[in-house]
Amino acid sequence: MIDIRSLRDLIRLFYIFNPQFRLAFVTTVVLAVLGAFLLPHKYVSDARLLVKPGRENMTVPIDAGDRQTIYPQSTTRDPIIDEEKMITGRPVLMEVARLYLNEMSAEKPRDGVFASIKGGLKAARRAVGKAVAEGLSFIGLAEVQSEEEALAELLAARFQVSHGPGSNVMELSFTWSDPQQAQRVLQTWVRVYMDQRTAALGRKGLVLFYEGKVRDVDQQIESAKSLLRTRLEEIDGTSAQERLDNLGKRLNDLRTRLAEIVAERNALQNGISFAAGRARALPKESVSERDLSQSASWQALSAQLAELKRQRADALRVFKDTAPTILALNESISTLASQLKAEDRVVQRSEKRTPNELNVSMERNQLEKSVRLQELNTLYAAFDKEINDLQATRRKVLEHEPELARLEQVLSVAEKSRGLYLDSLEKARIDQALDDQRINNIAEIQEPTFNPTRSSPKSLLLILMALPAGGMVGLLVVYLCSLFDQRIHDGGRFEERFGVPLWSTVKDITEGGPDNDFHASLYRIYGTLPLARIKQEGLVLGLASARAGEGVSFIVAHLKALLDAQEVAVRVNPDVAKAAPGEVVLLEASGLHSNREAFVRLSQANLIVLVVEARASTIPVVDNALGVLRTAFRKVDGVIVNRRRFELPPKVLRWLQR
């Protein structure tokens, strides 16, 4: 447990874990140097293939691409991924491994001592690997692999294929121990990939398939046409819809005409009835010429009446109204007036009678309307019969319409399919010709290269980076050790971590002897003691430790010397642990886990202090000791960290204090 508060504490970590740093540093440097000289050399051969858009990398087959129900390929799909999966597929790997083994078996062994040793080592390694594999297979932990399968796995591990985002170029690389063999293996790999791809994507049976489909569709079209022709002859039309349209149009015209005839017939009947009624009220004859004049007797009576009225008027000038003369005149006037009224005034001398022309005209009109009414009745009967016949014909057409529609649809689909099959047949013939000539959408824009320069190991770079890498690994080890280190090195964050006050940290004087820092830590312990209580009641101080040898006796001895110097009476481990006023009794209780007397002594103490040895006591041990003391005595008054070391050399401390 180290509290990192400044650069000094970080440097202190380096000195605390200096052995681990050195071990990691030396190990890393040695491994880097050995790797620079002993790692096997590897050579890389590169090639590049351009994948052009074509039928092979379309997500929709070419024979279905023209159908309206098929959507074009999605732009989010990368077709190069499919090509990469094909080139790294197991069929290609096994074929390349088989060809490589055949080539290696036919190749002559190289001359030279080094080549012989290298070949012997390879043979021995293969034999050992085969024996190990057979042993693992015997106990059921693995399966025996053939030489081709093992080589295929090795080739797959050494082969890499990639492409950039949005790029159609596949970048191939193969790593092997020999540059010439790497080039030949990559050449074989590309050739096998092309052949396997052509064999897998070549549609050799499409031509025969589409030819058979065209013949089948032709037969289907001929059968549908024959059946459709028979049905159309039955309904006497070119198509069901056309026949229904004609019948519907004729029926609509007839119904319209029939409605007009009914309206006209009703109008004629009403007109005839009205004309007959009016004709009965008209005279049968009419006078065309008449001669009229006044009657002579009427004229004579009228003249006499006028003369009587004149005489009466003259008599009234002489006589009164009651005079006999006047009365006689009045009576004569009345008699003559009555005779005048009874007399006809007009006398007809001649007249000419003829038949009534209006009556004759009305009779003629009635006759014409009767004839028209008879014509309309005849037309109505004919149209009604035709409508019934047309309705019967339409019912017959409607009965045949579903079958006719089905036959027309079958014929339309068959003709469309025939056109698509013919187009696809032509494309299949073109594809077959391209496959026969090994023409596809893969272009080899860079052949497998021969690179005599090794790709790994970079010996010079390894040697140059050995020291920096060793330093970085060493620092990483120091950091990891500081994370997993649970030892207590100083008193930083002690009270925060354990909940017990830290009395003092006592410096380790094993090498240099007591100095000012050591005495200062003792005086800090002395200053922590309750001096007023010591003067009044005395104090029994118990010092305990989790293990023996953590410095309890050492702390007691030096604390006794300090108290003696301060003229304080001190006793150490007395039989009766009772302090007099002004006296301090020190009780040693080391080794709590193995010393039973420690608990007896601590039960008599007024204050209990736990002594912890720096760089030896761990957090779990201190937690356990504090838990035991709290369980037994319900208190722990303080902690003293003993043998605290300052790992930084003095010259480093002086440099940090500048």
Task: Provide a descriptive summary of the structure in words.
The protein is an alpha/beta fold and 658 residues long. It has five domains: 18-39 and 457-484, no CATH class; 41-201; 205-279 and 362-435, Orthogonal Bundle (Helix Hairpins); 285-355; 486-656, P-loop containing nucleotide triphosphate hydrolases (Rossmann fold, 3-Layer(aba) Sandwich). Helix content is 61%, strand content 13%. The chain has 20 helices and twelve strands. The chain has helices spanning 7-16, 18-38, 79-87, 90-106, 113-138, 147-158, 179-201, 206-235, 240-280, 296-315, 324-342, 357-436, 459-484, 494-498, 516-528, 531-536, 552-565, 597-602, 619-633, 650-656, and strands at 43-51, 159-162, 169-176, 285-294, 346-355, 442-446, 502-507, 539-544, 569-572, 583-589, 607-613, 638-644. The strands form three sheets. A six-stranded parallel β-sheet has the order 7-12-11-8-10-9, with helices on both faces. It has a four-stranded antiparallel β-sheet with strand order 2-3-1-6. Helix 19 (619-633) links the parallel strand 11 (607-613) and strand 12 (638-644). The two termini are 28 Å apart. Residues 58-71 have low confidence and may be disordered.
Second CATH tier, the architecture of the largest domain: 3-Layer(aba) Sandwich
Structural shape? elongated
> Which blocks of ≥5 consecutive residues have pLDDT under 50?
58-71
Largest sheet: 6 strands, parallel
Distance between the termini: 28 Å
Radius of gyration: 69 Å
Helix content: 55-70%
Structural class, judged by helices and strands?
alpha/beta
Mean residue pLDDT: 81
How many structural units, i.e. domains?
5
